[in-house]
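Lecture 7 notes: from sequence to structure.

We start with a single chain of 303 residues. Read the sequence below before looking at the structure.
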Amino acid sequence: SSMGAAAITTSGFNLNRERMAELLGFSEVQENSYGCIAAVDYLTEVYSDLKILFINLGRFIQDLGQWTSFELSQLYVPDEFVQISSIMPQKRNPVPIEHMRILSSIMIGYCDTVVNSMHNTPFTDMNDAEDSIQVIGFKAFLTGERVLKLLTDFVLNLKVNKEKIKERIGETYVSITELADSLVREEGISFRQAHEITSRLVTTLIKEKKPLGEMKYELFRSIFTETIKREPEISETKLRKFLDPEYFISVREQLGGPGPQALRKSLDNYKDKLIHLRKNSKKIKEFEEAAINKLKSVVREYM
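Now the structure, written as C-alpha cells:
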C-alpha cells in the first residue's frame, strides 16, 4: 500500500500505515515514499507480462493456422468454427484463427502503448500514468479476454487427424533421428558416423521420392557397410522398429520428453501448479473481501 506516503515525505501526523494497508486489502506497506508517488511498475510490469503472454499465444495461434490448413490437415475444425467461401464451396476457412491472430497483435500494441508512454517521463507524480493511458490499458484487457475465451472454445473443439500426422511423419523423415541414436547404442559407433549414415539414407530417399516406410533394408546395409567398413549387426526387424514413430516417442522418457510416462508426469505437474495458483487467487480474493468488510465495520464505529 502506498497510502500514507502523501507528497513524497509521508506526514508529520502519527499515522499507522500498516493498519491502513490492512484495511485497504494490501499485504504490506510500500516503504519507499518517493516510489509510492512516482513509480510506474504497477503499469509496466503488468503490461509487459501481458505482452509476453500474447506473443507466445500469437505464435501458437499461427501454428494452429498451419496445422488446420488443407495442405497439412493435421487438425480438423468443426463446422461451427468455419466460414465457407462464398465462391469456392470446398473451401473451409477457420476464421477464428484470423480473428485471434489480429486481436493478439492489437492487444500487444495496446501493451506497448502503455509501457512506452512511461518512457522519458519524470520520476514524480504525473498525469502520463493516469486517465488517458488507463483507457488504453483497459482496452488491452478487454481484447485479451476475447482472445482467451475464443481460443479456449476453439481448442476444445478441434479434432486431431492421427492418420494424416503419421503420413506427414513418414514424408518428412522425422523418426530417422532415432535410427541415428539407436545405431550409436546398438552398433557402438560414434554419433557423427551414425549421422552420416542416416543423412545419406534420407538424401537417397528424397531423390527416389520415397517415404521413410518404403526404405529397403538393402539400402541401409549398403550405406552402413560403405561408411563403417563392416556389416551392420541390427536386423531388418530392428531397423523397422527404430524407424517407427511410436518407438521414437516411447524411448523419450526424460523429464520434459514426449514419452507417455514423462508426458503424463508433466501434465500432472502443470495441473498441480494450476490448482496452486487458483488456491492463491482465491486466498487473495478472500483477503480483499475480508478487508472491505473490516473497513466497513471500522467506519460504522465512527459514525
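The domain at 167-250 is CATH 1.10.40.30 (Ribonucleotide Reductase Protein R1; domain 1). Keep this in mind for problem set 3.
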